[in-house]
Amino acid sequence: MAGLGLGGIQVTNAVKVLISDKMDPRAAAIFRDRGIEVDEKTGLSPEELSAIIGDYDGLAVRSSTRVSAAVMDAALPRLKVIGRAGIGVDTIDVPAASARGIVVMNTPFGNSITTAEHAIAMLFALAREIPQADQSTQAGKWEKNRFMGVELAGKTLGLIGCGNIGSIVADRAHGLKMKVAAFDPFLSPERAVELGVDKVELDELLARADFITLHTPLTDQTRGILSREALARTKKGVRIVNCARGGLIDEEALKDGLETGHVAGAALDVFAKEPATENPLFGTPGLICTPHLGASTNEAQVNVAIQVAEQMADYLLLGGITNAVNVPSLSAEEAPRLKPYMALAEKLGRLVGQVVGSEVRSIDVEVEGAAAELNIKPITGAVLAGVMRCWSDTVNMVNAPYLAKERGITVREIRNDGEGDYHTLVAVTVGTAGGKRRVEGTLFGNKAPRLVKIFGIPVEADLSGQMAYIVNDDAPGFIGALGTAMGRHDVNIATFNLGRREEGGEAVALVAVDDPINAQLAGELRDLSGVREVVPLSF
Ligand SMILES: NC(=O)C1=CN([C@@H]2O[C@H](COP(=O)(O)OP(=O)(O)OC[C@H]3O[C@@H](n4cnc5c(N)ncnc54)[C@H](O)[C@@H]3O)[C@@H](O)[C@H]2O)C=CC1
Ligand SMILES: O=C(O)C(=O)COP(=O)(O)O
Description:
By secondary structure, this protein is of the alpha/beta class.
């Protein structure tokens, strides 16, 4: 299994994690309790991070650390997982991580109540100008007549994005007797009814909302969603809260809106450029700011620190995958059951990959019997990694699906109902321009991978170490000639596995050897009488 890239499987040295942002000490304590070495180094520049990241298996971050493709390049081949103690992964180049086989995980719920509460606090702060009134009062001005607020009750709150945080904000807003409308293309009408929100288009939200709060991730689709044009379509006197991401609002346009009085107030926790030690909006009347404090409560920080450390440790030590944003989940309970299947899948993929070469057009993964009860995604990932390892050293089950897509390989997953000859079976069929090749394998004693059929011929073999795959005419004398040729090259035969289509027909030999089969020996084997194909294999 070396090199499969599944955490917990290939790690032999001490596992090491770097925590590069301020995190509750429980994160480091969990890593240490689970036998993982931890370094905590915050405030690193990208260059400083790149200089040391190559020594770590895991990197735990919040939003201050930017994890670029260049940092990941410096982190390879060791880094296996980046854990975000929080929600937004916009500071991590996720496609680059996927391409490099690095798992990215976040903690999707740990800080959502806290962030929703911050948004509600910002609503009140805007409605009653609390920060401005505080400043004036403490300056000894007693400007009772200057501050005249608005009530929240009865007003319409427009949510842009109604996922975890947006839903909690909606719930709290109902408690404040606000009407809630939401623009979220992925919000189902049923869920909107359940939440008691009006599902509306963005234009309607802009036209109706007295208050707007943003709760979407920063993506190519949401960047600048409150653009100059969108702001122009808002109600005069609108108040805007952004506790999601700075890039969602056109900051220059918001500044103009505040200055003309079209926008009565804006409360921002997040900024286009962070840390926002300067920003064109600063000093604009009606503006309230906090330094990305949305997730900063004791409770949320404990939650996310514990979650990220447990998740990363599960992956690094057991292969369990929870809350990954670039690879399907695999629970720490499932992982041990799947491990032998993934070993089998990888071996089958590797076998067929070595035989067919790189002109692969399609890969079908079929599971039957006990295997059909399991999560098929990791099995498929392992097959793809096995096939592609034949032409790429850096492939693992995380980046294999992306590499397959990049190469235009069609991947199909098939669950066969019922049981065949084996209580559990994984079959891999690889399509090339020349046709399809199928291999089948099972687990002996639920743990030992065994090949049971190769290209339609029953043969039982343990796929490991150095082997030779030989197709020949089933005729007397072949085995003797083969043994002699091997002996001439000092290559010791460890095991010999034979199968044939029918007596006197096509036969297959899978020969395990103690020493590698070099090109010269392979050539001599090909020259033996009746031999049709020889492929040296390694597992
Ligand atoms: N200020 C802070 O400290 C914090 C900020 N955040 C930010 O809040 C964001 C939202 O967090 P959650 O609610 O937990 O995420 P979520 O994934 O549960 O919800 C996001 C919602 O946005 C919707 N959405 C996606 N694209 C959209 C579009 N083009 N237009 C409208 N809606 C769209 C999705 O359908 C989803 O319902 C995070 O991505 C993060 O950037 C999260 C935690 C703390
Ligand atoms: O969880 C998120 O998305 C956040 O924005 C919180 O950021 P932080 O962990 O406070 O740097």
